[in-house]
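We treat protein structure as text, and this decision shapes the records that our systems exchange. The tokens are whole numbers drawn from a learned vocabulary of local backbone shapes. Below, we set out a record of this kind in full and without editing:
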Amino acid sequence: MPFNGFVRSAIALAPPRFWWLIGGVIGLLLVASLIGAVLARRQPGPVVANLNDRIRAWWVMAGILLVCFLAGKIATLVLYALLSFLTLREFLTLTPTQRGDHLVLCLCFYVAIPLQYWLIGIGWYGLFVMCIPVFGFLLLPAVAALQGDTTHFLERSAKVQWGLMLTVYCLSHAPALMLLDIPGYEGQNLLLLFYLLLVVQLSDVLQYVSGKLFGRRLLAPQVSPSKTVEGLVGGGLAATAVGAALWWATPFTPLQSAALSALIVLCGFLGGLALSAVKRSLGAKDWGEMIEGHGGVLDRLDSVVFAAPVFFHVVRYGFQ
């Protein structure tokens, strides 16, 4: 199919509510870009420069997500498999491994990742939810033991297992929203994925802005010096309000949407805090440098890896 024909077909198949959401995101980015330009002219400094770096990166990320959503299920799964590969690489780069872990790492990157996303692609829910936490949890330490290297064996095994759980198993629950069969919502599951990502990322941005503007009391200064009580409350409430206002794009009522948004915000905050503690224990500020203004890929997805599985299972057991 010619590219123009593909684009027309994708646009025609996308539900109208999808385009309303896209229009809203583009509008927010335009407003943010305008505010960033004004601030850069009137109050130049490192904080404003960082904010503008984040906004530019968000334009790129929003464009990539839009293309994948339009391309459909397979492209979305490929994108998330790539994100799992990149985030797992970032995680293991900062957590030292040894020669005896090489076979285990090959299994993680070249077997576990494609297998997990293939299971989502074919809709095999039962194996998708148990493959890594059961079979992977038991198999990987056994394979490592066969290599005969017992130096810091427990620590090395725990690092690999936790990295695999976070960056592959937990993250894969975001595109796994396409597996859900919600009565009256058939063919619109990508909107749930969009909803999850929008609430999570808005929460991160609004907490950052609220913390910079109103932050006084630090939540965990030894873990994340930038997280404040005012940032969490102000940004969290604002993101919850936005999520509640987007109920029309979901199968939820306004009250349900508000409750789920609050849950996403809380899980995202805990994810960011937990992975910040991991970085601090390793003496690192960011997971990487791939995204200008954001650090590594995992720095942008640390909230998603905690929020995605919780949101997935609450929706699955509450709305199917």
In short: The CA atoms of residues 60 and 291 lie 10 Å apart.
